[in-house]
Amino acid sequence: MVIVNxxxxxxxxxxxxxxxxxxxxxxxxxxxxxxxxxMFVTVPxxxxxxxxxxxxxxxxxxxxxxxxxxxxxxxxxxxxxxxxRLDALEDLDELRDIVVDSWQQAAxxxxxxxxx
Length: 116
Hints:
Structural class: alpha+beta
Helix content: 25-40%
Order of helices and strands: HEEEEHEEHH
Shape: globular
Oligomer: single chain
Number of helices: 4
Strand content: 25-35%
């Protein structure tokens, strides 16, 4: 018997809120997660994916390497964000790594050094 551990929006929420000084705020009819007033995760639409900060040059490489996992909807093409499909992630460690990376891009230096 194979047990499939599918992650969901609650896993994203739990991980995001575990990071220092993270708050959840609803915006655009979806949950967003912020540190020091800066968004670092959103859970849009039907909650099968989430969006994180990602420099555009890295985003292009991510999408090219793993298009089944990473994507950008047309209306977000000019942003520095990427969407991640929850069902394409390997495990909770990968989910946590992605969320933490986005948090680090938004967090002030004093928080990043305190969480290390």
